[in-house]
Amino acid sequence: MNPIKKGDMTRSRVLDILRALAVFLVLGRHMDVCPQDLNRSLYQLTTIWNRGGWVGVDLFFVLSGFLISGLLFREHQKFGTISFKNFFIRRGFKIYPSFYVLILVTVIVRLRRGSPVPFGDFAHEILFLQNYFVSLWGHTWSLAVEEHFYIMLPLALVVCLRLKRSDQPFRWVPIVFIAIAITCLGLRVYRASANYESTLFPTHLRIDSLFAGVVISYFYHYYAVNFAQFARRYRWWLLALGVICFIPTFVFQLERTPFIYTYELSILWVGGGLVLVSLINATLPEKWPTRVLSFVGSRSYSIYLWHIPLAWALGFQKAHYIRGFNWYSYAGLFLTGSVLLGIFMASLIEYPALQLRDRLVSSRSQPLNLLPAPRKLAQGDI
């Protein structure tokens, strides 16, 4: 799985590259399409990229579900318990410093420009309610979904451990996931007559994507031998089917196609899950593109946070460009600038906060690639 050691942490290069893929998809969604009269081929390419790039968030959701639940599952494997306090403090050091700096900068810039900062919009942002109410930024809704997940999942696991003591206290995970997946899909279909935003953003309609990652993580950690054998045997089939699941979003427009913001949202977590299962134990060549992509992926959170402010600063929503500033200049500045700004902000805020976190609150979880040796499964275990 090409682990990357950084201090006492071990990262998966495959997962970081998937993060890089996800954030590049999102960048395409928020980049202005190349004018048709400037370059027809680029117009077609950027149109497709713009139409379907939003699925990068769905890929992020599956990866987050896998990674976050993995931290908790490995803590249980190591200690037999899960500390909600320890988990939430460490997660807070990861999420809050970068996010609240973004909000602070937003408020300062708005006030200096003489623009109003509605208290309600501000409150919705800092309380992570921006996926239900109007907020300062449009792209932070996904952070609210993940924040709600960070509360729900560890609480559910902790309660489960207190109610039932056994070697496999989380057998309910696949069953609960099926119930969540059916419920989310049913509610999305029920609301299909409304606009796409009413089904795309609310946590109770999107949490199935995160729990798809949880159920994959459950089998990965508690049935490691069978999981690895299955993934290795069917890798290319799983990868191909996973990629196919994403194709409709690049063909049909989200805003005008109810199928996309109802059924396709379920198909997307299927696709993201299949891609994850197919690649999680893959060995990648130690080449510079692999290292560069994994480095970018490891900074994807900061890139995601700051790419919209940069787009706004570049005049993202303008229909024309200032003299001497054509689309090529704009696209180059947006794409490279988003990555470089994200890397800079990660170095300035995100990673110093993580270093402080590791000094103050030690991790109770084992690194992803240092799982305990899987027990041999008795017949009928799965």
Helix and strand layout, with pairings?
Layout: E1 3-6, E2 9-12, H1 13-29, H2 40-52, H3 55-79, H4 84-112, H5 119-126, H6 141-163, H7 173-190, H8 197-200, H9 203-222, H10 224-233, H11 235-251, H12 263-279, H13 288-298, H14 300-313, H15 327-360
Antiparallel strand pairs: 1-2
Please give a handful of descriptors for the protein shown.
mainly alpha; disordered C terminus; single chain; 382 residues; two-stranded antiparallel sheet
Structural class: mainly alpha
Residue-averaged pLDDT: 90
Q: Biggest β-sheet: count, sense, barrel?
A: 2 strands, antiparallel
Order of helices and strands: EEHHHHHHHHHHHHHHH
Counting H and I runs of at least 4 residues, what is the number of helices?
15
Helix-residue proportion: 55-70%
Total discrete domains: 1
Overall description:
By secondary structure, this protein is mostly helical. The protein has one domain (3-360). Helix content is 68%, strand content 2%. It has 15 helices and two strands. It has helices at 13-29, 40-52, 55-79, 84-112, 119-126, 141-163, 173-190, 197-200, 203-222, 224-233, 235-251, 263-279, 288-298, 300-313, 327-360, and strands at residues 3-6, 9-12. It has a two-stranded antiparallel sheet with strand order 1-2. The two termini are 24 Å apart.
